[in-house]
Prior knowledge:
By secondary structure, this protein is α/β, with parallel strands linked by helices.
Amino acid sequence: MNLLIIGPQGSGKGTQSELLAKKFNLAHIEMGQLLRKETKKKTILGEKLNDIINVKKELVSDEVIFEVLTEVISNIPIDKGVILDGVPRRQTQVGLIEKLFEKSNRVIDACVYLDVDEQESLRRISNRYACVDCGHKIVLGKDVASDEDSCPFCGGDIQQRIDDSQEGIKKRLEIFHRETRPVADHYQKMGKLVNIRGEQSVDAVFQDIVAILSNIK
Length: 217
Ligand code: AMP
């Protein structure tokens, strides 16, 4: 099975992708994470990506997305399915990804759309932290009580993502509604959209997705 998962910031794409990857034995490809890894490198591309992602808080060019994805997908055995988390993010990426899948004999079985409203996105993202050392994702109020606490997994310092500032989230949500929402409409027309209410517990969201996917395959 090959899946896409899209949704506004804080809708739970990462969490649900991990659960789905485990359940259906899929390789989880988290676009944002792959790009953030590049921003840490002292290369021309790394600096350019840092400027786009962390300073301007815009979308990265389709060329870079395609290049990174081509490389990652070429290293995954063809008999293992994938879940693409956070991509396609604009309509021009749809064709590129479908072509890439076709080339590697993969079919997109479904596009999961996790829907949460803006207030919920803002609330969840303001609690989203990560460990500076081990990179573990940490939720304030669940994994730690305060932002002064250390990482419960390795004891390292925790911090918010640079692009998760209030101004950063607002801008990225606005881009989501303008650029990414039409991608869901595309898969809706193809009869491949799995529309899920994201404002439920992690387990309830997961059960809803699995119930629909089980009817597909
Ligand atoms: P995310 O972790 O999904 O919030 O992504 C972090 C940032 O990476 C986004 O705000 C974009 O700048 C960039 N990014 C991630 N996925 C894509 C994509 N499919 N197309 C363009 N830019 C992306």
